[in-house]
Amino acid sequence: MRFKSLGSGSSGNATLVQSSGSDICNVLIDCGFGLRQLLQRLEKSGVLPDQLDAIFITHEHGDHTGCVLALSNQYNIPVWMSAGTAAAIGYVNASGLLRTASDGDVIALNGLQLCPFTVPHDAREPLQLTCTDGAAKLGVLTDLGHATAHVLEKLQGCHALILECNHDTDLLAASVYPPFLKRRVGGHYGHLANSQAADIAGAVLHSRLKHVVAAHLSQQNNLPELAQNSLSQALSCSANDIIIASQNDGSPWLSA
What we know:
Layout: E1 2-7, E2 14-18, E3 26-31, H1 35-45, E4 54-56, H2 62-65, H3 68-75, E5 79-81, H4 83-89, E6 98-100, E7 107-108, E8 113-118, E9 127-132, E10 137-141, H5 149-155, E11 160-164, H6 169-174, H7 179-186, H8 194-204, E12 211-215, H9 224-235, E13 243-244, E14 254-255
Helix pairs in contact: 8-9
């Protein structure tokens, strides 16, 4: 199994997950870009839209939903999301492509299994997820305010992790954001600080954890080197071992 961020940040998020073997399965987790831009990013990754087997939407915020309706309808791709997310975006299932997901489900696709779980975030029914091909396990954890015991339980045994490192606490406190926005971002239902992400990484560390990708970095309130330093200290590795998923370029293809 391999994966690639197509871009991550407040201006848009999307991640490709691809099974190995002769019968390849491609899943797009979030598609928070306009249709033209997303198609360009897919083409650059080597995956065509008609090769997508499914789309999974984590929650209703625009930097994650983007062009989901247009992409799904134009290329006849099933879309998985929670009932709360579908209601929040006003999803009209005229095409019959909507599939609802809940915490604890196992979504069996061709060569991949998706296992969604609830997270604390200021959305109607947000879900993050793990993906497995039976041999490797990828955890995708962005957009949450703090890690619950349930979240940490679901991430145990991951061989690769895409982990939100939204902000540095000091940079957020000193930023030009108004007080209400600082409270929202730094609150229990907002976004993870570097230190919180490091705590999560340390809590799920095991000998076969191969890749950690820092994602959803704030352009105003974080720096890649700050996220890398926090995670590397928790994982007892070099800062250069932490991969940054950038807004413009995402990440390279990585094997889980």
